[in-house]
Amino acid sequence: MLIRKITRKNPSPDVLEEAISVMEGGGIVIYPTDTIYGLGVNALDEGAVRRLFRVKGRSPHKPVSICVSRVDEIPRFSRPCGDAMELMERILPGPYTVVLERNELIPDVITGGSSRVGIRVPDDEICRRIAARFPVTATSANISGKPPSPRLEEIVRDLDAVDLVLDAGDCLDMEPSTVIDLTVNPPRVLRRGKGPLDPVLLRGAGDV
Questions:
Q1: Residue of 38, 65, 10, 8 whose CA lies nearest to 165
Q2: Does the pLDDT value for residue 200 go beyond 60?
Q3: What count of Cα atoms within 13 Å lies in the side-chain half-sphere of residue 172?
Q4: What values do phi and psi take at 188, rounded to 5?
Q5: How far apart are CA 137 and CA 19, in angstroms?
Q6: Which of 158, 125, 147 minimizes the C-alpha distance to 19?
Q7: Burial class for 89, CB neighbours closer than 10 Å (0-12, 13-18, 19+)
Q8: CB burial class (10 A; 0-12, 13-18, 19+) of residue 136?
Q9: Residues 6 or more apart from 151 whose CB is under 8 A from it?
Q10: H or E element: which one contains 180?
């Protein structure tokens, strides 16, 4: 396991390129986001995604979200309908996961066989610059069933089989992203997390 220090505001291009190279080779990277640390592989590499499931101890039947670098990339991997793009342009980048109908580019292993996929565009330069090359898995960096830790030392101890860690310090905010289902109208909030939920913005979205 390699550990590289990185700053959020001016991340080293060399360190970012190293992270991308590791993922291109099928490796797993722990990386900071605008919420909690994420566990990242190239989301289009089925072998790497299966390895991530083994390292995390996650059931292969449970889906994981993906991270992309810009809102206008979302239609490359999904089928937004209605006013979904307009809403996403208002709330992203930000601490939200939007659920959309997937398209054929997304492997079944990402969605657990579901027809839908969760997509993030984090308000974090490190995430977006890594995901500019290919979509990156956006699952929390923790052993499945164990709460995410704010302490990077503990995260690394639990996930010692990863290939690279981007160390931006311990997490100060442990709220996960808010999950919004955009396959229904009005949108439906599946999980409340970080980020405001303006009822006008979400046009009447409710909780479950």
A1: 38
A2: no
A3: 3
A4: -120, 130
A5: 13
A6: 125
A7: exposed
A8: buried
A9: 170, 171
A10: strand 178-181
Q: Which two tokens stand for residue 74?
A: 């979302």
Secondary structure (3-state) at 173:
coil
Strand partners, 74: none
H helices of the chain, where?
Answer: 13-24, 46-56, 74-77, 84-91, 108-111, 125-130, 152-158
pLDDT of residue 201: 53
Structure tokens at 152: 């990077």
* DSSP symbol at 30: E
Q: Name residue, tokens 């302490």.
A: 151
Predicted local confidence at residue 197, as pLDDT: 79
CA distance 139 to 143: 11
Position 202 scores a pLDDT of 54
Examine the pLDDT at 205 and tell me if it is beyond 80.
Answer: no
